[in-house]
Amino acid sequence: MENTSIRITPYSKADYDAWSKLWQNYLRFYETRLPLSTTDKTWSNLLDSDMPICGFGAWIEDNLVGFTHVVLHPNTWNTTECCYLEDLYVSEDIRGQGAGRTLIEHVYEFARQKNCNRVYWTTQEGNTAARYLYDMLATKTDMIQYRKDL
Hints:
Layout: E1 6-10, H1 16-29, H2 36-47, E2 53-60, E3 63-73, E4 82-90, H3 99-113, E5 118-120, H4 128-137
Parallel strand pairs: 4-5
Antiparallel strand pairs: 1-2, 2-3, 3-4
Helix pairs in contact: 3-4
């Protein structure tokens, strides 16, 4: 289901306020907070063409309704880079209207253009609405993530 009223674009400096509002909603969804310095550094990295981090906004008319952030990185199992879809968020009031799908499909095309060998991401097990979409667009692996924060 393609929603042709959704436009996906890279960010510009002028998008900060709209992005920041969605970013804070995204952090609340995951029940976390980040210092303003981290948010500002993330925004700076997203705009820096020398960083392997990219961001794309989903727009309906002049309203930012969603975003995705990706990280490109080398790996030991292929000769080309991977694309890690680190963040994906769609405003609650427009979920189910195709913005998430459109963002993911945009990431797929971006990764193809960058000659990546795969796109991958993680989500919470209980994020059932998002997982319903993900199950249609990708293959769930049997990998389990372990983490040690430093």
